[in-house]
Specification:
This protein is α/β, with parallel strands linked by helices. Helix content is 38%, strand content 12%. The termini are far apart.
Length: 786
């Protein structure tokens, strides 16, 4: 394929027309698919770029056709056009006739072009960025909303909804201007989404379908003979016509078999990936870009193609240009704000609270963070959710009022001999602080740095009590999952939160905290765990320390003023100190000392072996720093082996060895050791001389273990500009850093003659920064800092 042009997605939004935000769903899917194919994609509202080819969404709302002469544009048509379809303006029909168009339905192009076969048609499939992680949503049968209807209501749709409601099912109609995360949180609270046709043409609405199914919620759709959804949606959607509708909702809906079928449909849809259609589209887009540039160069001169010049393209009712830049709904800029505000979710939370429904409010907040924090442009760049933190502080007053009321009710019941509701948490009066240290986390895992950090804390603070909120219901669904926790934390009290609704979980933790009256509370919670925070904030006497989860990701609680903010790397501690306006404390990672290896004074290049560590997610099998390329580049320059510690799929190992074979390198020189109980102990037994940092994602804990063992580390330093993981405070010598595989090989060769000095330097660095004395000193400093 020819060199790819930059692609700019432009969403049209007339001034004051909030419903344009519905275009985010197809636009984000285009963004996702084209980015996967290697294209550089940006997205804004009401602005075109001259240095990119513009994919215009919502042009039916108003688009200046003259801009087709000065900008490379492709109109993306999502309207149902033709017989019994949408009544679009004649200006839009003329625009489609003169513009280059991409469509989503093969039946549309004949309505606006004499050459319908020349119009690319793409479909929508599974969007993994919408899918909630396991345990973060309720099972279908436990969701509070029976059927959710999304869309505008006309008489036809209202009549069908009333008929369904007469069967006894609750149908919620989402008519307000709710989009994005707020809408998704409601979809995830519904057993199914109901799709009813607006037009008599009964075209199937792919966009709504892929959004609902990707969110893990089944779709029940009306079907007419001319719906023609295609084989994918034909299999993944439950269909009915008017004759079948009442038996479906009166008899079948809600039965165990019905839920089983819907779960199978969701699983089937997760396999749908129309990537080839988007590969064809990208080739088409590239051709359009090249053709347009040739016209500009010949007709008006190459100066017409310049820097990113904004072009306002729609006007509001008063005639003013509405050139609003859009960066908040989908963060695609290189350096988005560290402070993230999800306005649509904030609004939804406020609505639920105003209705006296804190459960729904907190569920919406939790779901939004779960969806948001790992999105492209957010992960590794954003840090805080200040509006959510403000809402948690406001909910604290509601919590305290409820607890006080329950205290009074309990006392009155004792005085009058009345019964106390056994389902309510037992209220406990407030107490002065005691001697215990409360460690609050969401859940733990048998491997990984998260659990090790909590374990290190528990072994080095006085009278520890670990409380797991079980936010995702993991231990309630499978109690055996907690067995290893009690074994690993033998001698330490571990309490797992009860299987309650989220608000009751919070109240239960609040009562538990008041009963134990901890002197210190350490938070090692997940990004979205509102239970951990809200359930303990009300106990004011305790000193509270929050370890910023995953360090470089946004997390709820970071901006709460009553918490001591703790980071585990120097860069983040410095960054958060500036943003929060108060000192952020540093708690460096600690790895127990298992002794240092001894090395000879000199080591020859032909004797050198290397080792790296990390699961599949730390490496990639494609791209400039793909693991096969790293292994081949290193083994070409040394005479030993390349050891790999960590769980790695057999197929990925075969890819690496096949690459070595193709390069004329003995594949047996790559040795995959799999998962080991202790990286440090394994390193002591290996005949390896250097540790190579993982790429493109770094793993700090294993690198620290390597340095403690005496292995010099060559860290990866090729992170994107502005990334918060570009933190090198875990390494003593950045002269060994590398950004390309060629640079890695060269740095390794040059380091061999200095190996012993580098080894001693690595060990000293561990002792100063990451040993047990350093860790304990940091804990004492944090607990006493003011």
């Amino acid at each position: 394929m020819n060199k790819l042009p930059a692609i700019h997605i432009c969403l049209i939004q007339p001034q004051g027309y909030a419903f344009s935000d519905a275009l985010l769903d197809p636009a984000q899917y285009f963004h996702y698919q084209l980015s996967r194919l290697g294209a550089s994609v940006s997205l804004e509202k009401n602005r075109l770029r001259r240095d990119a080819i513009n994919l215009v969404f919502g042009a039916h709302l108003g688009f200046n056709a003259d801009l087709l002469q000065s900008h490379s544009c492709i109109i993306v048509n999502l309207e149902q056009i033709g017989r019994e379809g949408a009544e679009v303006r004649s200006a839009y029909r003329r625009l489609l006739r003169q513009a280059v168009v991409v469509d989503y339905d093969r039946r549309n192009p004949p309505a606006y072009t004499d050459h319908p076969d020349d119009v690319p048609v793409v479909s929508f499939g599974y969007a993994p960025y919408l899918n909630p992680a396991a345990g973060q949503v309720l099972p279908l049968q436990q969701r509070p909303v029976d059927l959710l209807f999304i869309g505008c209501l006309n008489e036809r749709r209202l009549d069908l909804i009333r008929r369904i409601q007469r069967s006894g099912l609750k149908v919620e109609a989402l008519q307000v201007e709710t989009f994005g995360c707020a809408r998704d949180s409601i979809i995830r609270q519904s057993k199914a989404v109901l799709n009813l046709h607006y037009y008599e043409s009964a075209r199937f609405e792919q966009v709504r379908a892929f959004v609902c199914l990707s969110n893990g919620t089944p779709l029940l759709s009306e079907r007419h003979p001319n719906s023609e959804p295609g084989p994918i949606f034909d299999a993944c959607v439950t269909w009915f016509d008017e004759k079948q509708m009442m038996p479906l909702f009166e008899r079948d809906f809600g039965t165990p078999l019905f839920y089983q079928v819907m779960e199978q449909q969701l699983a089937c849809f997760r396999q749908v990936d129309p990537i080839q259609e988007y590969a064809d589209l990208l080739e088409f887009v590239t051709g359009v870009w090249q053709a347009h540039q040739s016209i500009l160069t010949l007709g008006q001169g190459a100066t017409r193609v310049g820097p990113d010049l904004p072009a306002p393209i729609v006007s509001g009712p008063d005639g003013r240009w509405a050139g609003v830049t859009w960066g908040e709904a989908l963060q695609t800029h290189a350096n988005p704000p560290r402070f993230q505000v999800l306005a649509d979710v904030d609004w939804q939370v406020e609505q639920w609270l105003a209705q006296g429904k804190p459960d729904q409010a907190l569920l919406a907040m939790t779901a939004a963070i779960s969806h948001h924090f790992q999105q492209p442009g957010i992960i590794k760049h954003a840090l805080y959710y200040p509006s959510f933190d403000r809402q948690l502080r406001a909910m604290r007053a509601r919590l305290e009022a409820e607890l006080e009321r329950e205290d009074s009710d309990a006392q009155m019941a004792v005085m009058t001999g009345g019964a106390i509701d056994s389902a309510a948490p037992a209220a406990v009066p407030k107490r002065e602080i005691g001697a215990c240290t409360l460690l609050v986390a969401s859940e733990l895992y048998p491997i990984g740095g998260h659990t090790r950090l909590l374990e290190n804390l528990a072994r080095n603070v006085p009278n520890p009590v670990i409380y797991l909120t079980d936010l995702f219901g993991s231990y309630h669904q499978d109690p055996e999952r907690a067995r290893w926790i009690h074994e690993r934390f033998a001698g330490i009290e571990v309490v797992i939160g009860k299987p309650l609704d989220i608000w009751e979980k919070i109240k239960d933790l609040a009562v538990f905290t008041r009963a134990r009256a901890p002197a210190h509370i350490w938070y090692v919670h997940h990004q979205q765990d509102v239970v951990a925070l809200l359930g303990t904030l009300a106990f004011e006497p305790a000193r509270k320390m929050m370890i910023h989860h995953a360090d470089h990701n946004p997390s709820v609680g970071c901006t709460l003023p009553e918490l001591v903010h703790v980071d585990i790397t120097t860069l983040l501690a410095e960054t958060c100190s500036v943003h929060l306006g108060k000192p952020a404390q540093l708690l460096p990672l600690y790895v127990p000392d298992h002794g240092v290896r001894s090395f000879p004074e000199l080591v020859a290049l032909e004797q050198v072996s290397v080792v790296t560590a990390g699961r599949r997610g730390k490496f990639t099998n494609s791209g400039k720093v793909a693991l096969p390329r790293i292994v081949a580049a290193v083994l070409r320059r040394i005479g030993g082996k390349f050891f790999h510690i960590g769980e790695y799929a057999e197929q990925d190992i075969k890819v690496i060895k096949a690459h070595l074979q193709k390069q004329g390198i003995d594949p047996e020189r790559y040795v995959s050791l799999g998962q080991v109980p202790s990286v440090w102990k394994c390193l002591k037994t290996l005949d390896a001389h250097f540790y190579i940092g993982s790429a493109p994602f770094s793993g700090g804990m294993s690198a620290i273990e390597a340095q403690g063992c005496g292995l010099p580390v060559l860290p990866f330093t090729g992170f994107e500009a502005g990334s918060l993981i570009a933190d090198y405070s875990s390494y003593p010598d950045l002269s060994l850093g590398w950004a390309t595989v060629e640079e890695l090989a060269e740095k390794l060769v040059n380091a061999v003659e200095h190996h012993l000095a580098l080894s001693r330097k690595a060990r000293r660095f561990y002792e100063e920064r990451f040993s047990e004395p350093a860790f304990r000193a940091a804990i004492e400093r944090i607990c006493s800092a003011r």
